[in-house]
Design goal:
Elements lengths: L13 E2 L6 E2 L4 E5 L3 H13 L3 E5 L2 H11 L3 E4 L8 H10 L8 E5 L4 H9 L4 E4 L4 H11 L4
Length: about 150
């Protein structure tokens, strides 16, 4: 993949040039979903809870953003045009730079068989749309990587 640099508009923790101390920014959550209304509601909800939220409507863009913003969690739709969320889940779990990031599947296509398959593939949890936003926030906090 090479070295991908984050766009200048994305903030990252950086060492302060004068003090050498780290400056902390809000944590990023990445929402990969082709339903723009849903991803926008997720963005607004998580922003009120103190998170930065990046959104992608396509699997390829979401994969690229995962490297750029280094999210603490990924919310991933299962059924999307072109590529499926289950394929992206496999790519995330396979890549050493991303494999530690908790991935939550948020989908309208839900059954116990699908849920079991996705959990076995590395998803932390599978939520059925419409999903309670407090439940997503609690899951993100519970699975949050420890610094």
């Amino acid at each position: 993949m090479g070295n991908i640099r984050a766009p200048k508009f994305l903030s990252h923790p950086r060492a302060n040039a004068k003090t050498g101390k780290s400056t902390k920014c809000k944590d990023w959550v990445l929402c990969i979903d082709d339903d723009q209304d849903f991803s926008y509601s997720i963005k607004l909800s998580l922003q009120t809870r103190g998170y930065n939220v990046a959104r992608a409507q396509e699997v390829d863009k979401g994969y690229q953003l995962a490297f750029e913003i280094e999210p603490i969690a990924i919310l991933l739709d299962l059924v999307m045009p072109n590529d499926g969320g289950d394929d992206l889940l496999s790519q995330i779990r396979f890549h050493p730079s991303l494999s530690h990031i908790p991935v939550f599947i948020v989908t309208g296509m839900y059954s116990s068989n699908v849920r079991d398959r996705l959990l076995a593939s590395g998803a932390c949890e599978v939520f059925r749309k419409p999903v309670d936003l407090d439940t997503i926030t609690e899951a993100i906090e519970y699975h949050r990587p420890q610094a």
